[in-house]
Amino acid sequence: MVIRIRSLIIVLNFVLIMVLLCACEKETAPKSSFGNVDPMEDGDVLIDSANGGEDETIEPEEEPEEAVTGGGSMKTSINLDVDRPNPEVKRMVGLCDAINMACVEQQKAYTAEDSEFMWHCVHLYVGESTDKDMGFTRVGDSIDADPVIINDIMYAMFGKLRQMPQIPEAAIGSGNGNPHIDISNDLKYRFSGGDRGTSAPQLRRATLYSDGSMEMEVALVDSESGDEIVSFIYTMRANTRDTTSSAIFPYEITGARPADGLTSDKMSGTPFLVTVMQVYGYDSYDKEDPRYNQVDEVLYFNSFQEHVPGMDELNARISHEILEYANQPEKEGRWHSICSYPVTTDGYVQAAVTIASYPNDGSDPDIYCYNYDKSKRRAMDMNDALSACKMTGSDLVSLVNSLAQKKLQEEVTGDARYDGFIVRADSSVDVFYTVITGEGTDGIGRLVAYNSETKDIRIVFEEGDVIPADECDNLKPILTHGRKEQ
User: Sheet containing 378-379: which strands, arranged edge to edge?
Assistant: First the structure.
């Protein structure tokens, strides 16, 4: 009888402990228009690393800690060694990687309610997986997979899913009759093959909690430069559909949130710059051909959302002012140069573009500027530049004329022409003007930049580049501005 009472007390104590742990599971986090954006808080500092290693066990980096939030105790956590993730963890990284790629390719956030997005995630996973346990079979350019395995993948990717979604019509067959996803003669799923390009997954952080749940930060990075494309924190719980020891996936993903401001901006619809034309004459013509020096660098504003206020307006200007010019054939013996300078800061997404046709009279290239205000979610114009300079348009023109005449030591004729502006990394503003020196047909256009902080001008093509290289975005492939050695 005594033994039974002691056993009952032990059981009751165990139940009480579990209730206390579960009562503290809910984590608070600041919100954004996209969702939670806090990177795994609660006192856990995780190490940054690329994934690798073949360890068969999950090795903690440190002793378990009890995370505390809002004055109350929470579930304990262990920071995993992301340098040596075991095969089960690496398998979950593969799922996260496929979701990352789908978010970028389809410009959508993680969701378990969009069948097109979900099947695209599975398709990408199948195409990239080298896991022999999946039993995938390559048939020409296609990959066959057992339906049971595909079910496991789908439910592991979307843990809150109630039933398998139907394959969307867009994936079953494309316009040329070649399906992306099909059913083979032996009733297996057949996926078309593909190439992920120059991207790679990177496991940056992983935390295992005492209730069996886990969080991972998995980034999609440029495999050549290491630059981040997007990075998400994935929440996972123990597999609820297959609790056997032989389950392929030990966890199922229940949510994802941006790991940093860069990804949060993209997922919230903030525009970012992409290259839509990048052609250099030295790749197509002999040195003796004038077109050897031709440069075509054209950028557009892109977004993970449609119809972002101001973005379409900026792209319409680029189409008219830049792209139409780039597509016009040059007369024999002539060439043009279109050089782009992308500048993204905490508050702004911008591009300065210079255009010149050669041979010319010695005038500097024309410049066009495109500016987007992240916080106000709108395109910017000359009024924003004047506001930064705290001057009226006429007063600034008079000042620029005076400063240019003094610096160039030449007579400046007529009023300076406003060309645009760029907010610099130090939050000052460069306002670009073209001033004319000389008389009549002998007049030469010189590009100058008035800085709102220094209250002075610089002669753009004599005093450094249009925008210093260390302030420009590192787009891939790199924008060389026609300098072949780069």
Answer: 272-280, 295-302, 335-344, 348-358, 366-373, 378-379
Q: In the block, which residue shows the tokens 């690393």?
A: 49
Give CA–CA dist 78/405, Å, rounded. 67
Structure tokens at 74: 């929470």
* H, E, C per residue of the chain: CHHHHHHHHHHHHHHHHHHHHHHCCCCCCCECCCCECCCCCCCCCCCCCCCCCCCCCCCECCCCEEEEECCEEEEEEEEECCCCCCHHHHHHHHHHHHHHHHHHHHCCCCCCCCHHHHHHHHHHHHHHCCCHHHCCEEECCEEEECHHHHHHHHHHHCCCCCCCCCCCHHHHCCCCCCCCEEECCCCCEEEECCCCCCEEEEEEEEEEECCCCEEEEEEEEECCCCCEEEEEEEEEEECCCCCCCCCCCCEEEEEEEECCHHHHHHHCCCCEEEEEEEEEHHHCCCCCCHHHHCEEEEEEEECCCCCCCCHHHHHHHHHHHHHHHHHCCCCCCCEEEEEEEEEECCCEEEEEEEEEEECCCCCCCEEEEEEEECCCCEECCHHHHHHHHCCCHHHHHHHHHHHHHHHHCCCEEEEEEEEEEEECCCCCEEEEEEEEECCHHHCEEEEEEEECCCCCEEECCCCCCCCCHHHCCCCCCCCCCCCCCC
Placement of tokens 């502006």 in the chain: 421
Question: Structure pTM?
Answer: 0.71
Contact 366, 355 (CB under 8 A): yes
**Residue showing tokens 């296609």:** 142
A 10 A CB-CB count for 21 gives 16
Per-residue model confidence as pLDDT tens for the chain (486 residues)? 434 434 434 443 443 334 333 333 333 333 333 333 333 433 333 223 333 333 334 445 555 555 544 555 567 889 999 999 988 899 999 999 999 999 998 888 999 999 999 999 999 999 998 888 888 988 888 899 999 999 999 999 999 999 999 988 877 754 455 678 888 778 889 998 888 888 999 999 999 999 989 999 999 998 887 889 999 999 999 999 988 888 899 999 999 999 998 899 988 899 999 999 999 999 999 999 999 999 999 999 999 888 899 999 999 999 999 999 999 988 999 999 999 999 999 999 999 999 999 999 899 999 999 999 999 999 999 999 999 999 999 999 999 999 999 999 888 888 999 999 999 999 999 999 999 998 766 789 999 999 999 999 999 999 888 999 999 998 888 999 998 775
